[in-house]
# Entry
Amino acid sequence: MVIIYTDGASRGNPGPGGYGVVLKYKEHRKELSAGYRLTTNNRMELLAVIKGLEALKGEGHEVLIYSDSRYVVEAVEKGWIWDWLKKGFAKKKNPDLWRRFIPLYRKHKVRFKWLKGHAGDVENEICDRLAVKSSEGPNLLVDEGYENEVGRARQEGL
# Structure
């Protein structure tokens, strides 16, 4: 089984943000992180899960994802994303990321476990530090999905 710990952070919501991921498989361990100049906490939480799943080679892995994001965990575990998908993600936030997540989710046998953030779980704390540090770094990336959506909303006067 592959174990993935994830966390997202943003300084301001929206604001600069980042994600942190720890992947564990047998004796192997890998850390991933990146920062973005303008995004939201929920986007970074979901992007962390996506990046963890994208890092897996092959298909059909049993994957357990630990996340402190109720937004992500409940959307999947309670099946909300399937209703959102049927409705084309109408009036839902982050459709670009959910559409990116779904094929990755379907490639593997994924389960989620929610854990309380900042409660002393070593790997979650590492993910948090990776996410926060990435959000503070130079040369932050552009979260095109978010910035394009903000641009469209401004043009439409929303």
About this structure: The CA atoms of residues 68 and 116 lie 5 Å apart.
